[in-house]
Structure formats: structure tokens, C-alpha cells
Design brief:
Number of helices: 1
Radius of gyration: 13 Å
Shape: globular
Oligomer: single chain
Strand content: over 45%
Distance between the termini: 28 Å
Number of strands: 8
Helix content: under 10%
Largest sheet: 8 strands, antiparallel, barrel
Strand order of the largest sheet: 1-2-3-4-5-6-7-8
Length: about 110
């Protein structure tokens, strides 16, 4: 398992996905409350719309700022799905990032701490 840097603790917790560029807010909470959960270790989870996935997380930096990059696998409307993404600390205590579905859509997103 990869060593987790001390700054990873700022990402720890359940974050509510409050905005995505591609999907509207009505869709985000379709099955459950849209969220990104990071443990500060190498795992976590994401859910929005009909998508649910488990994360494989690595902490590092992007453009000089602390970030969490992840790959994910799970399901989208009960079909197997996978992809990747990243989040960084934004303004007002939010996380900002980008989410990618392998061979599918991608979207910027914003999270607020739950």
C-alpha cells in the first residue's frame, strides 16, 4: 500500500456533491444523496445519479495544490462501470474536481463537507 502523506487528513470525510457541469441537480440525488467519501487512506466511495463506485485513492499535488487522484469501479444503472477523477481544495472550504467515466461522459464537480 502506498504511503499516505500527512496533508491527506484535510480530505477525510463525507463530501456532498452539490454541483456537476454535465448532470443537473435533480439527477444528482436520484438513488441516494450524491457524495464523495475519502478515508485519508487509499480508499473511498462515490455516488451520484444511478452511479456507485469504490475508489482507489492517491494523494499528491496538481498545479502546486494538494489533491486526491483516484480510479474507481462500480456500476452505473446496474451496468459495470469504471473511470478516474481528482479533487483539490477550492475556495470556501469546498472540493473542486473532475470525474471521468471510462469510454463515457466526464464532468467537473464541486463538493461541500457534509
Amino acid at each position: 500500500m502506498a504511503k499516505v502523506p500527512a496533508f491527506a487528513k484535510v480530505f477525510v470525510g463525507r463530501w456532498r456533491i452539490v454541483e456537476m457541469d454535465v448532470w443537473d441537480n435533480d439527477f444528482l440525488d436520484l438513488v441516494e444523496e450524491a457524495h464523495l467519501t475519502l478515508t485519508g487512506e487509499a480508499d473511498g466511495e462515490i455516488a451520484f445519479g444511478a452511479l456507485q463506485g469504490v475508489l482507489d485513492v492517491r494523494y499528491g499535488s496538481r498545479d502546486g495544490a494538494a489533491c486526491a487522484e483516484f480510479s474507481w469501479e462500480g456500476s452505473d444503472d446496474n451496468d459495470p462501470a469504471c473511470g478516474r477523477g481528482w479533487v483539490a481544495l477550492g475556495s470556501a472550504g469546498r472540493l473542486v474536481g473532475h470525474f471521468y467515466i471510462h469510454n463515457g461522459d466526464d464532468s467537473g464537480f464541486v463538493c461541500e463537507r457534509s
